[in-house]
Design goal:
single chain, alpha/beta, Rossmann fold, 434 Repressor (Amino-terminal Domain), five-stranded parallel beta sheet, 5 strands, binds cobalamin
Length: 303
């Protein structure tokens, strides 16, 4: 057992240093406006078994903050910042297209930033995390005028409105928006996030919840709207494991027979596993992770 724990610890520390070097390479690529290099970093991260959510949080987030800092300190101009941001948006598009979302949960969310706040990358991330989580999402982009946001919600009746704001000067505007949203005949729940709300409690401005972490925020929103925190059934875990093994295998251009040989497992075992029908042992998952050269967490971890 201690061998397994040591191995898991080594994998965690290897994964952390790999994520740090990927985020540095990505930040450099977008700061130089190099789309090809940025795409190569994303491909490398995916090949190492990082989930889309981890690529957003460990690679894109650091890259955007780096570029923003260069702009704020005058080292790059607005054109360079815009190009870097567009490169990240295009990489997010790519990941959205290849990420299998959870089954639709029947809930609808709207995501935007308040009028005057043009920092929209946090909002885009939250919108994508909701999509991955099975929500139907309308992402309105940045700086939606208050009256238009309210009119849009009146028409589309979302279950959740997410407001992302970066500047403390946004807070009075957001308070007004929430007060109007709470007067609608079908009141949506409101979730806040972003730097502006770091020292403001959600309830003090009429919102239901706030969070600085999209994953934790969405977990809270699911609870608020009566969904269980996560689908933790064995069948779901096995289906997800099967999809991940298949994605990693295909990523490496391996056939089931080649994976079976590399992992020392029967080919029919691999086939039933990829269909989510094989109740696997920890030993088998370790063999698969070794054969695919990914950390165990890339096959078993929660997104
Ligand atoms: C990039 C950047 C810009 C870019 C924005 C590009 C774009 N289109 O988004 C540009 C260069 C345009 C810009 C402009 C300005 N900026 Co600026 N910018 C930044 C910077 C460096 C990074 C922001 C960013 O993109 N982060 C990446 C995203 C992905 O992260 P994030 O937004 O924090 O989101 C994460 C979490 O907060 C959370 N989250 C976010 N929203 C939500 C919502 C929900 C519901 C949930 C659950 C979670 C969640 O999830 C994300 C992932 O973890 C920040 C400093 C910083 N370190 O944050 C300053 C910063 C936000 N900017 C600032 C300022 C002052 C400005 C300007 C006013 C500067 C000026 N003199 O013109 C203008 C304002 C423009 C405007 N009217 O909006 C200040 C704001 C502070 C303040 N007190 O007002 C900051 C903090 C810098 C500073 N320290 O001074 N900026």
């Amino acid at each position: 057992m201690s061998k397994i724990i040591d191995k898991a610890k080594m994998q965690v520390s290897r994964r952390q240093s790999a994520a740090a070097s990927l985020s540095e390479a990505y930040a450099q690529a977008i700061a130089q406006g190099n789309t090809t290099a940025a795409a190569a970093v994303v491909d490398q991260a995916a090949a190492q078994g990082m989930s889309a959510a981890r690529i957003y949080l460990d690679v894109f987030l650091a890259g955007q903050i780096h570029v923003g800092r260069l702009w704020h300190s005058g080292e790059i101009n607005v054109a360079q910042e815009h190009l870097a941001t567009q490169i990240t948006l295009s990489q997010m598009d790519r990941l959205r297209q290849i990420t299998q979302p959870r089954p639709a949960n029947g809930l609808k969310a709207i995501v935007t930033t308040p009028e005057g706040d043009h920092h929209f990358m946090g909002a885009r991330m939250v919108a994508d995390f909701l999509l991955f989580d099975g929500w139907s999402v309308d992402f309105l982009g940045a700086s939606t005028p208050l009256k238009d946001l309210v009119a849009f919600c009146e028409r589309t009746k979302p279950d959740l409105v997410c407001i992302s704001a970066m500047m403390p000067s946004d807070v009075p505007n957001v308070r007004k928006a929430i007060s109007s949203l709470k007067k609608l005949s079908q009141q949506p729940k409101v979730m806040l996030g972003g730097n502006a709300f770091q020292s403001v409690s959600a309830s003090s401005i009429g919102a239901d919840i706030s969070s600085q972490d999209p994953i934790e925020g969405i977990r809270e929103a699911r609870k608020l709207l009566g969904l269980t925190t996560a689908d933790r059934s064995l069948a779901t875990y096995l289906r997800r494991l099967g999809q991940r093994v298949q994605a990693q295998r295909k990523n490496r251009g391996m056939s089931q027979a080649q994976l079976s040989e590399a992992a020392g497992l029967d080919r029919t075992y691999i086939s039933t596993l990829e269909h989510g029908k094989q109740n696997v042992s920890i030993g088998a998952v370790m063999k698969l992770a070794d054969a695919l050269d990914v950390p165990i967490s890339a096959l078993l971890g929660d997104d």
